[in-house]
From TrEMBL, chain A:
<dbReference type="GO" id="GO:1902670">
    <property type="term" value="F:carbon dioxide binding"/>
</dbReference>
<dbReference type="Pfam" id="PF01455">
    <property type="entry name" value="HupF_HypC"/>
</dbReference>
<comment type="similarity">
    <text>Belongs to the HupF/HypC family.</text>
</comment>
<dbReference type="GO" id="GO:0051604">
    <property type="term" value="P:protein maturation"/>
</dbReference>
<dbReference type="InterPro" id="IPR019812">
    <property type="entry name" value="Hydgase_assmbl_chp_CS"/>
</dbReference>
<dbReference type="InterPro" id="IPR001109">
    <property type="entry name" value="Hydrogenase_HupF/HypC"/>
</dbReference>
<protein>
    <submittedName>
        <fullName>HypC/HybG/HupF family hydrogenase formation chaperone</fullName>
    </submittedName>
</protein>
<dbReference type="GO" id="GO:0005506">
    <property type="term" value="F:iron ion binding"/>
</dbReference>
Automatic annotation (TrEMBL), chain B:
<dbReference type="InterPro" id="IPR002780">
    <property type="entry name" value="Hyd_form_HypD"/>
</dbReference>
<dbReference type="GO" id="GO:0051539">
    <property type="term" value="F:4 iron, 4 sulfur cluster binding"/>
</dbReference>
<dbReference type="InterPro" id="IPR042243">
    <property type="entry name" value="HypD_1"/>
</dbReference>
<dbReference type="GO" id="GO:0051604">
    <property type="term" value="P:protein maturation"/>
</dbReference>
<keyword id="KW-0479">Metal-binding</keyword>
<protein>
    <submittedName>
        <fullName>Hydrogenase formation protein HypD</fullName>
    </submittedName>
</protein>
<dbReference type="Pfam" id="PF01924">
    <property type="entry name" value="HypD"/>
</dbReference>
<keyword id="KW-0408">Iron</keyword>
<dbReference type="GO" id="GO:0005506">
    <property type="term" value="F:iron ion binding"/>
</dbReference>
Length: 75, 368
């Protein structure tokens, strides 16, 4: 239940007073509430859990940590 | 898919496993708290990549599994009343109550719907003004912000035909209860990544210090999990105590303050009973008094029926990490996904379901 899936925000709109958006996840569009990621913009990645975006994915952090592990391959 | 495929790179996983073997000089027993991580570990066979001596123990981080039989019975009672609509996450429909489950209540004519988001339940209330719409609000810290938002939104819209049946749990008190129990063998924890997305890593520091037990926050993909195990083993080997974050792209030390604020506005901390484990002090969330009009327990006369787990089900021992699912006599025999004795056999995060799905052929000699 605590699974949260990464996806890319493709549109943002207000609905019933809440900031909502469409998030492309693995080829399909999911409607998600964006109230908890108030600064997110179209094109950014987030993780969605039970219809709520909980965090803008830190691209720089992701790249840096992955480079460390990819670096092992060259050893 | 971005942020998934690169974390499933088999060659990277193999290299991390080699590092782990080099780093390990003694046996260590580690618990992954989150049931989602248990499923990933079994699905990708990560436990089979670990050096001899590293034992993974599966924790109680499955909200569906720890929701009490009483809550399931209450949900079934609500769904069976005329004029009500009960909405729940799909995982909840097959969880056994003391007699039957929500799916059976639906087949008897109860209006039971499954939803992906608490806001869908709220929409059902808007669309069905003549029905009492009750959402079975189950979860850990990850799910609490969404459930809290649904309640707050209902209050703002004055949506009086909406209410929630709350079954909310908190991870740190469960970790503390495990570490304080007699015969505890857990030496380090993999922290539940998405719980920490909301709460941050700070709530774990006092536990790490009090019990001298390191915690490394982990994600859910193979590279995330194995790199977190490597860091945890390094800390154990070096006798380092503290909390480290191996899931930095999604977890920040302070968590998500906006989400935590709405949770605090709507819920307060309370003692709650964990199915199979019992009451743990200050380990759950209940609605604050100011939101009592959206509390299903106050809206419906549900009686005080005493309910108990099926005695054949050892889910309490599984959830506390005392046994593995395949050590239970009922596993794969009386207890199977099509006729579960306990919730861990049906939940997408249940350890028994993970063993049944990914380990059956190598488990006991029965035909799965």
């Amino acid at each position: 239940m605590c699974l949260a899936i990464p996806g890319k925000v493709t549109s943002i709109e207000k609905e019933n007073g809440l900031r909502m958006g469409l998030v492309a996840i693995n080829g399909s569009m999911t409607r998600a509430c964006l109230e908890y990621v108030p600064d997110i913009e179209v094109g950014q990645y987030t993780i969605v859990h039970a219809g709520f975006a909980l965090k803008v994915i830190d691209e720089e952090e992701a790249r840096e940590s992955l480079e460390i592990w990819k670096g092992l391959l060259g050893e | 898919m971005k942020y998934i495929d690169e974390y499933r790179d088999a060659e990277v996983v193999r290299r991390i496993a080699e590092r782990l073997a080099q780093a390990t000089t003694r046996p260590w027993t580690i618990m992954e708290i989150c049931g989602g991580q248990t499923h990933s570990i079994l699905r990708y066979g990560l436990d089979q990549l670990l050096p001899e001596g590293i034992s993974l123990v599966h924790g109680p981080g499955c909200p569906v599994c720890v929701t009490s039989v009483k809550t399931i019975d209450r949900a079934i009672a609500i769904a069976s009343k005329p004029g009500t609509l009960l909405a729940a996450f799909g995982d909840m429909l097959r969880v056994p109550g003391s007699s039957g489950d929500l799916a059976a209540a639906r087949s008897r004519g109860g209006d039971v719907r499954f939803v992906f988001s608490p806001l869908e339940a709220l929409q059902l209330a808007r669309e069905n003004p003549h029905k009492e719409v009750v959402f079975l609000a189950v979860g850990f810290e990850t799910t609490a912000p969404g459930n809290a938002m649904a309640v707050r939104q209902a209050a703002r819209e004055g949506l009086m035909n909406f209410s929630v049946l709350v079954s909310h749990f908190l991870v740190p008190p469960a970790m503390e209860a495990i570490l304080a129990s007699s015969g505890n063998r857990i030496q380090g924890f993999l922290g539940a990544g998405h719980v920490c997305t909301v709460t941050g890593t700070e709530p774990y520091l006092p536990i790490a210090r009090k019990f001298q037990t390191p915690v490394v926050v982990a994600g859910f993909e193979p590279v995330d999990l194995l790199s977190a195990i490597l860091r945890l083993v390094q800390m154990l080997e070096e006798e380092l105590v503290g909390v480290e974050n191996a899931y930095g792209r999604v977890v920040e030390p302070q968590g998500n303050p906006a989400a935590a604020a709405v949770v605090r506005e709507v819920f307060e901390v309370a003692d709650v009973a964990w199915r199979g484990i019992g009451v743990i002090p200050a380990s759950g969330l209940v609605l604050r008094e100011s939101f009592r009009e959206w509390d299903a327990l106050r809206k419906f006369e549900l009686g005080g029926v005493d309910t108990a787990d099926d005695v054949r089900c050892r889910s309490g021992d599984v959830l506390a990490g005392r046994i593995t699912p395949d050590s239970c006599d009922a596993f794969g025999r009386e207890c199977r996904p099509e006729h579960p004795l306990g919730a861990p056999m049906v939940s997408g995060e249940g350890a028994c379901a993970a063993y049944y799905r990914y380990r059956c052929s190598s488990a006991k000699p029965f035909s799965c």
